[in-house]
Design a protein that fits this description.
Strand 3, helix 6 and strand 4 form a beta-alpha-beta unit. The chain folds into three domains: 25-218, Rossmann fold (3-Layer(aba) Sandwich), CATH 3.40.50.300; 225-307, Orthogonal Bundle (Helicase, Ruva Protein, domain 3), CATH 1.10.8; 311-398, Orthogonal Bundle (Arc Repressor Mutant, subunit A). The strands form three sheets. Strands 2-3-4-1-5 form a five-stranded parallel sheet, with helices on both faces. 53% of the residues lie in helices and 9% in strands. It has helices at residues 25-39, 58-73, 90-97, 100-115, 137-156, 171-184, 199-207, 211-214, 225-237, 245-254, 259-275, 283-310, 314-324, 332-339, 350-359, 381-388, 392-398, and strands at residues 48-51, 78-82, 159-163, 190-196, 216-218, 242-243, 280-281, 330-331, 363-364, 373-376. It is globular, with a radius of gyration of 24 Å. Mean pLDDT is 89; it is low at 101-109, 112-129 and 395-401. Helix 4 packs antiparallel against helix 5 (137-156), helix 5 crosses helix 6 and helix 9 packs across helix 10. By secondary structure, it is α/β, with parallel strands linked by helices. The structure holds adenosine-5'-diphosphate and magnesium ion. Adenosine-5'-diphosphate is lined by residues 11-16, 18, 21-24, 52, 54-60, 223, 231, 259-260, 262-263.
Length: 401
């Protein structure tokens, strides 16, 4: 029996590290290799980009990395954790990177150089700045200023910079940051780790076509059935909760390996056990929790539906969902064929509608090695869209198709 006043260890959606964090050993290994390098004043050779639709554990991975770095190397590495709204401008970016003692003088110098309209001081730029070849004068100033500040800071103490929700980074800031990161790493220990939804690829590629291929891309996806089982069962076991194996296997399967749903299941099972003053998961507890899960999932799906609706892409999303009901993955040609059968909102082409669905995380390129294969982004969202959307045939008639 779980005591009444015990805190529920599952916190779905809070971006917290889950109580048991399976299926991410490869990412964790790579992170710790980088941390070891930083500790030895060696810069990892590339930045890391974590990219996946929401609910797959991007923030959890960043939080884990931050926690482990602080645990292992708090004295040797500065961990800076930011979201795009904290670094809307280049001065804000520098401010975040700079230890407070030197903040004012650096900022003063920076503001002076940012205001400079002519690139008068740029004649002395290092000759090896292939990165800067395509930058306009203002972008070059941003690049050199951020690089100078970053290098100076990292030479004093290695920096690990974590940027969550990076698909929302202001373009000038993203550009300066990525270029400066590359340059700084040639001279000082620095690592940039960015996380974002599948829209991040388009966001960064719009700034520079090679950003994506230059960095290490991690795409945390769905968990295996065994890992989903572990994520739900093991935290409960620490409270001496027992379970019928078949029931928990079915629950793990119901979660579809979607990390967010594993935590939702854990949370609901835990609270039902507490309310029933029970210590064993049987059919009754599972059914009560299942009802809670359905309610929470409806709210979650409704949120996703609303944002696709705001983009006026429900007919496109529905047509795509109907095809995925017959086929697990679609290639680009098949996807475009489907989009060609629906009326797209004004201003959209087939390609922009496809990318809008990618940016939304409705579909995604789950295989980094094959960018022309598309998987559903969020499990069962397509089934929900199909049941909620007005029948496609009616829509087509209304639209005079
Ligand atoms: N590997 C995992 N196993 C179990 N739960 C996970 C895992 N990764 C993340 N979670 C949980 O899933 C939920 C969604 O994770 P989050 O990091 O917020 O996703 P994202 O940032 O990609 O939207 C959180 O409650 C988190 O604790
Ligand atoms: Mg997140």
């Amino acid at each position: 029996m779980i005591p009444e006043n015990t805190i529920n260890p599952f916190e779905p959606g809070a971006g917290k590290v889950p109580p048991v964090f399976p299926g991410r050993e490869r990412e964790q290994y790579q992170f710790m290799q980088c941390v070891k390098r930083l500790e030895h004043n060696i810069a990892p050779s590339r930045d890391i980009i974590i990219c996946a639709p929401r609910g797959n554990g991007k923030t959890a991975l960043l939080t884990w990395l931050e926690r482990e770095t602080s645990r292992q190397a708090a004295n040797n590495i500065d961990v800076i954790d930011v979201t795009p709204d904290e670094i809307n401008t280049i001065p804000e970016l520098i401010n975040i990177l700079t230890p407070s003692g030197r903040k004012s003088s650096l900022l003063g110098r920076l503001e002076g150089s940012i205001k400079a309209t002519a690139p008068a001081g740029l004649t002395g730029l290092p000759a090896d700045t292939g990165i800067t070849a395509k930058l306009n004068p203002e972008q070059q100033v941003a690049f050199t200023t951020v690089t100078a500040a970053l290098t100076q800071c990292c030479l004093r103490k290695p920096i690990l910079l974590l940027v969550d929700e990076a698909h929302n980074l202001a373009q000038p800031v993203a550009q300066a940051l990525l270029n400066a990161s590359q340059k700084t790493r040639t001279k000082a220990p620095f690592l940039l780790v960015m996380a974002g939804t599948p829209g991040l690829r388009n966001h960064l590629s719009a700034i520079n076509a090679t950003f994506w291929e230059r960095n290490d891309i991690l795409q945390p996806g769905l968990l295996t059935r065994e890992d989903a089982y572990k994520a739900i069962a093991e935290p409960l076991e620490t409270f001496q909760v027992t379970h019928e194996q078949d029931i928990l296997k079915n629950i793990a399967q119901d979660s579809q390996g979607y990390p967010y749903f594993t935590q939702l299941w854990g949370e609901k099972l835990f609270s039902r056990l507490q309310l029933q003053q029970a210590g064993h998961i049987n059919r009754e507890i599972a059914q009560l929790a299942a009802k809670d899960i359905r309610d929470a999932q409806q709210i979650f799906y409704q949120g996703r539906y609303d944002s696709i609706e705001r983009l006026e892409l429900i007919p496109a999303a529905t047509a795509v969902a109907e095809r995925y009901a017959q086929q697990a993955i679609l290639d680009q040609g098949q996807l475009e064929e489907i989009l060609n059968t629906v009326t797209l909102p004004a201003g959209h082409t087939i390609k922009t509608a496809r990318e809008a669905l990618v940016n939304e995380g409705y579909i995604w390129r789950a295989d980094p090695a094959d960018q022309k294969v598309f998987h559903p982004g969020i499990p069962s969202l397509m089934a929900y869209i199909k049941t909620q959307a007005p029948a496609l045939s009616t829509l087509r008639i209304n639209q005079g198709d």
